[in-house]
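INFO  loader      accepted 1 record
INFO  loader      residues=283
INFO  predictor   begin
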Amino acid sequence: MSSHAPSRSAAPAGSPPSAGTPVLELRALTRTHGSGIAEVHALRGIDLRVHAGEFVAVMGPSGSGKSTLLTIAGGLDTATGGQVIIEGQDIAALGRKGVAALRRRSIGYVFQDYNLIPALTAAENIALPRELDGVSVRKARKEARAALEEMGLLEIADRFPDEMSGGQQQRVAIARALVGDRRLVLADEPTGALDSETGETVLALLRNRCDQGAAGVMVTHEPRYAAWADRVVFLRDGSIVDQSLTADADSLLSVGATGGTEAAGTDGTTGITGITGITGTAE
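INFO  predictor   done
INFO  writer      dumping tokens
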């Protein structure tokens, strides 16, 4: 894994970095598509807690449920069963308007396909969620420009998406996810369109936001980017098959990346070394 990742003292296995209510909690989460012989179980009984200040990487083969987990955690899709609880609130009880407000105020989401509005400039795309939440246009635009400057993109503040490269669009989308007081940051392959150097810069920004108190969950298939996280969660066939602190996962990821053989886990589940294809194409 990358030597660029920051070194952090490891906490005891399984312990969160802070006590109290998790920012994100998934309880017995399931998601099923179709019915009968066409039924597909995208998620199977997922239990996960992410506390303030914690950065979690989610890895697994294509089709393991990584992106589905993020979309449900961010209130963009509805679970078939179980609960999504954000800062103590079960989002199922909020209704559509309540969930939309929660997403604008508390959740920053980085999509694989950017989801920038073509008719808005970079600065306007970043400022829009803040303006919708009642922040003045002047303040929202000032925050947007500060976020672009942090990304090294201030010079494209007035460009439209079709005037940007794919990498620039991705960084604008990341800036939009980080602007304001976002307590939960969800990132689906945030470095997919970036070169390795820019990817490391983006991971440093995500890491810094978590160090400032946000909770972060990132889907990635790159071990060097997972090294920035405090904890790595491994999915396979819609289930969590293992969780490891980054320091513990380091050697195991390198084995999996080279096609290690399947091994039995300590709890009877398939071990991490058996997750072949973990560095393959993201879903």
